[in-house]
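Annex B. Sample input.
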Amino acid sequence: MSEELAINGGPKTATEPFPNTSMAAGRDLGEEEIALVSEVIHSGKMFRYSGSMVEQFEQEYGEYLGIKHVQAVSSGTASLHTAVAALQLDPGDEIITTPVTDMGTYIGIVQCCCIPIFADLDRLTLNMNPEAIEQRITDRTRALLVVHLFGQPCRMDEIMDIARRHNLYVVEDCAQAHGATYDGQPVGTFGDIGCFSLQQSKQITAGDGGIVATNDDEFYVRMRDFHDKYYDRTGRTEERIVQRIGINYRMNEVTGAVALAQCRKLPSILERRRASADHLIRLLEQIEGINPPYMYPKTTGHSWWRFPFTIDEDLLGVDRPTFARAIAAEGMPFSTGYGGGTPMVATPCIANHVAYGDSEFPWEPPYGRDPQYDVNDYPGALWGQESIFTTGWTEGHTVEHAELIGEGIRKVAEYYRSRK
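Annex B, continued. Sample output.
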């Protein structure tokens, strides 16, 4: 006899909230961060070029990635804008990216007067589908901007092959994927430039902040100069002799101090996230009708920004909305899809080409070719947004939390399966 569901008046599986990234229980923040911030305050050196915290963070994160150059910036969105700016593309040039991500992925493209073109997704992961990428390439395409969603790397061997064959730049949006690896290689080191976020919800956080990483000396110089108004801090020229329009995305020393402490904790943070997520996967594998998160065979290190799963409606005898309501009543903190469940390609500013005044620049001719975006052109994205259950995952999640989540999902699955 299956247990009565909480939604029907039965006992609730979880009565206390699970850890999340907006609470202390979900974050590894403490004395290390306090000590370094205190050092900055007592030094009186808050500006990055007066102190040493930001520079030290850049050095240590670069060592962690195994990459030559790291530039700290003020946010993950700033990192992506800085990366696209470093490519020095022309107005109307096209960059292929994903229809499911944060607005931060698109802002840098449009702010550089380029046009986002969308490739459909692998429906089981919501990561970009290499076959769909290739279908979108035209003579206007200059770069690919790939997003490692939820902490799982994209299929980077196939994507890099496409980029090489078509002579395209590759920017990696690793905002959700600190420490993730594909075939043993860290994300952010496959393409020309890797971008990371230090926003509150990410694997490591300074509240906000970002990282741009590259092995290319020329791209690094462009990134460094662009993020600091193209001022020359190296002594090559007079500082105020500005060669190009840039922006102010500098990271300050207080943010750098927190980022440095967090960088040193990243291996431990990932170890804890992986241990609890792996335990939940094993539990879900034992529940008929529940599909654990799909992982590509070459994913050697998932970094678990969110934990996803899907259901077999026919096997369970229940539709997704009903199942979602039932697990929510059990105290399971899952929602469907990502970012509200609607592909961002349908967002009014993108769909209606709204960026600069009353114009449709850069989409409008003669700069762009006026691409029209129809959400129905992305069936993989639509299916994934409607079908994938996800919850945020943190270093505060324990094996015991995984057990409780597994129990709640098992209870609901068995209830509906028994009533088919």
